[in-house]
Design goal:
alpha+beta, Rossmann fold, 34 strands, 630 residues, Elongation Factor Tu (Ef-tu), domain 3, elongated
Length: 630
């Protein structure tokens, strides 16, 4: 029967990975600790050699559940070893007392160091095959190697043959669990899959180490495998061979996925909470060369600090071919992996040269950065990354604007100093630049078109020349569809802060653009209408004054004249004046009566009455009669 969520949440669990040279007794130690054989394959049992990842678990004296991921020790299976170490947060480092520190001891230690693992236990196995002096010498050498890598691990000499030291090892593992930081059950899930198989009647099952977050039956997750992504539903959960409704961190977990093909969910695929990670192939990273102790062409590998152009990135359980572009200072690089990966800024991974087995630790500083297109851009990017103390602020400055949803997917808080514009965070320096650009655009426009009502918002947005990543695809950009177009909001914000105005979808100067050379002609019409409010000049009179459609539109826009149909113009208060005269007539009234009351012509009276009808001040009763609406 599934374990209830409250009981499951109260249980303390941890997952440890083994590490160490081949044939130093890692699998034998796991078997002795747990009573379970981590070697599953017939070939492994026949050869006595771990080839694939193995899994076993036990309960420590304190009641804590500990699962162990047993990794291969042979150099040919280093990719599998890194897949086992990748999701781990602590290590059981194994050194055989009769053989001492060996080549894969150094290589595994380099991987542990590169992945930022700082907690664990040093286990000296096969102590029944070494005397006390030999044990002491091997322990001192192992601790010296670990200390040089920044690890201080308690040592536990054991013999699984005699059982000596096994109780002390279990106590040391209890102490290790106490030292390990508590995982965050509320974090988004990112489960790197290390195995997949089919259960008859149940379908596809994937297994992995849940380092943070909580899984529940019915959860909707994203499954990413290579360049294929799909939404999946959790049908069932098992941990340590027991069914659960809820599994929290840190746990080994088997996840039964509803209607999912097994071939889509192999090793290196990853399950994660939708919209909680930035999925991308390109990352900017900080590089740290990690000495494996392995020679290359007779020289220690520390003499070759630069990574090759073609390498392999090991992240989680995935090992992906990658292209490496140095960014100029030897400490930063742009890495492009062969398939999309869900990243957070701050993630640690391993960059490996498959030719000479050199390792680098890489720390993710930015995800999906902008292309480096101009001369010197790589060197400038290296300087910006090196000087950054605020990854969110650095990203904002590099991209001019960023959406908070994207920062959340990167695992970053909103940076201080950004300006909120239409739901986006905008770099103040970019706002200043765009503001100057908009003001200049508007100055040039009004200089060429003095009577214009301004620039349409879309045209103004194009004039800002926003970066490609802030423009929709329809405008030649690469803005993701799920993010709102920032351009209209930016134009309105820039107009407002610059003392400009936006009216009817256009941005213009606050005075509406003015009338320029048409000022005198409009003033002449105003003087004529003040003397006789309904003696509207005809088209020829207007043309003689130089007032065409453009000038009349400008006069109407600025509130100087009221423009009716057929280029009939009155003063803005003309309709109110007309209503005073029409209200005094016997109701209903005819067009003829209205024309006489207003002392005007049919040419003016018809469009004026239609205007009053539209405003609801008068109402037509039939083809001849109207009345004032009281």
């Amino acid at each position: 029967m599934p374990v209830g969520p409250d009981r499951e949440a109260a249980r303390v669990k941890r997952v440890l990975a083994t590490a160490g040279h081949v044939d130093h007794g890692k699998s034998t130690l796991v078997r002795a600790l747990t009573g379970r054989d981590p070697d599953r394959l017939d070939q492994e049992k026949a050869r006595g050699l771990t080839i694939e990842l193995g899994f076993a678990w036990t309960t420590l004296p304190s009641g804590v559940d500990v699962a162990l991921v047993d990794v291969p020790g042979h150099q040919r299976f280093i990719g599998t070893t890194l897949a086992g170490l990748g999701p781990a947060s602590a290590v059981v480092f194994v050194v055989a007392a009769d053989q001492g520190w060996q080549a894969q001891s150094s290589e595994h230690l380099a991987a542990v160091r590169a992945l930022g693992i700082r907690e664990g236990v040093l286990v000296l196995t096969r102590c029944d095959l070494a005397d006390s002096d030999r044990q002491r010498a091997v322990q001192e050498e192992a601790q010296r190697q670990l200390s040089a890598a920044g690890l201080t691990l308690p040592a536990c000499p054991v013999s699984v043959v005699t059982g000596k030291g096994m109780d002390a090892l279990r106590a040391a593992l209890d102490d290790l669990v106490d030292r390990m930081p508590a995982p965050d059950p509320g974090a988004p899930v990112r489960l790197w899959c290390d195995r997949s198989f089919t259960v008859p009647g149940a379908g596809t099952v994937v297994t992995g180490t849940l380092g943070a977050g909580t899984l529940r039956t019915g959860d909707h997750l994203t499954l990413l495998s290579g360049d294929r992504s799909r939404e999946v539903v959790v049908r069932g959960l098992h941990s340590e061979d027991v069914a659960h409704d809820v599994v929290g961190p840190v746990s080994r977990v088997a996840v039964n996925l509803r209607r999912t093909e097994t071939e889509l969910a192999g090793r290196a695929s990853v399950l994660f909470t939708p919209d909680s990670y930035a999925v991308a192939q390109v990352i900017d990273v900080a590089l740290t060369s990690v000495d494996t102790g392995l020679p290359r062409s007779g020289r220690p590998d520390r003499h070759r600090p630069a990574p090759p152009e073609q390498a392999v990135v090991h992240v989680g359980t995935a090992g992906l071919p990658a292209h490496v572009r140095p960014l100029g200072d030897g400490q930063h690089a742009r890495v492009t992996v062969s398939a999309p990966v869900p990243w957070h800024v701050g993630d640690l991974a391993i960059l490996r040269d498959p030719g000479d087995r050199r390792l680098w630790s890489i720390r993710v500083l930015d995800v999906d950065p902008l292309p480096l297109r101009r001369r010197g851009a790589a060197a400038r990017r290296a300087v910006a990354l090196a000087e950054s103390r605020d990854p969110a602020g650095t990203r904002l400055r590099s991209r001019s604007a960023e959406h908070p949803d994207v920062l959340a997917r990167l695992g970053l808080p909103e940076p201080a100093g950004g300006t909120q514009v239409g739901g986006w965070l905008v770099d103040p320096a970019a706002l200043e630049d765009w503001g100057e650009r908009l003001a200049g655009l508007l100055r040039d426009h009004h200089a060429q078109h003095p009577l214009s009502h301004g620039i349409p918002l879309a045209e103004a947005a194009r004039g800002l020349n926003l970066p490609e990543h802030l423009r929709p695809a329809a405008a030649g950009g690469s803005l993701p569809r799920e993010l709102p177009d920032p351009a209209p909001h930016l134009v309105r914000h820039l107009a407002r802060t610059a003392g400009l105005a936006t009216t009817d979808g256009r941005v213009h100067s606050a005075d509406g653009g003015g009338l320029g050379s048409a000022e005198a002609a409009v003033a002449s019409v105003e003087e004529r209408l003040r003397a006789d409010p309904f003696a509207a000049p005809d088209r020829d009179d207007l043309a003689a004054l130089g007032l065409g459609a453009t000038e009349l539109a400008a006069a109407a826009r600025t509130g100087r004249l009221l423009r009716l149909a057929d280029d009939i113009v009155l003063l803005p208060d003309g309709p109110a004046r007309a209503m005073r005269e029409l209200a005094a007539l016997e109701q209903p009234f005819t067009l003829s009566a209205a024309r006489q009351a207003l002392r005007t012509t049919r040419r003016v009276a018809v469009p004026l009455l239609e205007h009053l009808d539209e405003r609801g001040w008068t109402r037509r009763l039939d083809g001849q009669l109207r009345q004032v609406v009281r």
